[in-house]
Amino acid sequence: MVLGCVVFLCLLVAWKGVSWWKQRALLSKAEGKNVVVATEAVRTIAYKKYGGAVSRLEQLVGKDTDKAVRLAAIEALGAIGRTESASVLVPVLEDPDRDVASQAAVALGRIGSAVATEPLCKALAAKPVQLTALWALGEIGDFSAYETVRRFRDDPDPYVSYNAVQALKKLGAGG
After folding, report:
1. Which CATH number does the domain 21-80 belong to among 3.90.350, 3.30.710, 2.60.40, 1.25.10?
2. Distance CA 138, CA 131 (A)
3. Which SMART domains does the entry link to (predicted)?
4. How confident is the model over 154-162, as a mean pLDDT?
């Protein structure tokens, strides 16, 4: 019995160690110069939901990083879902690159923190981010966004009005 417990503990320690080494290797690749390898490493981190990688992923969101890697890092932060990452993603809503700003809105919606409600409501003023910001507000479900979202219900753009109606349904206010 004791021998079985010792073997189990050794296997557990070995497995955790392998996981740590894999995570470390992926982070090293994510920070490398090869954009394709870096992007795939970040996507793998997101898929495996390596929470220990969050601070490094948050650094990759910075403007000095290649766009593909930034997008993957933002997506990974949303997939991992740590509330603390919202503070890094909120400023990205104002990024001049619409793809990057939209991906930040999606990630904030996946994280689901009400901290992002007000910044997402402000982001609705920027046309390129409206669809994803409306979606994110619906995902977060903070009723304080109701009045702001309601204004977009009758928007002339059918995609905007549709997303507003869907967000209102998720906010519990109907369409």
Report:
1. 1.25.10
2. 11
3. EZ_HEAT
4. 96
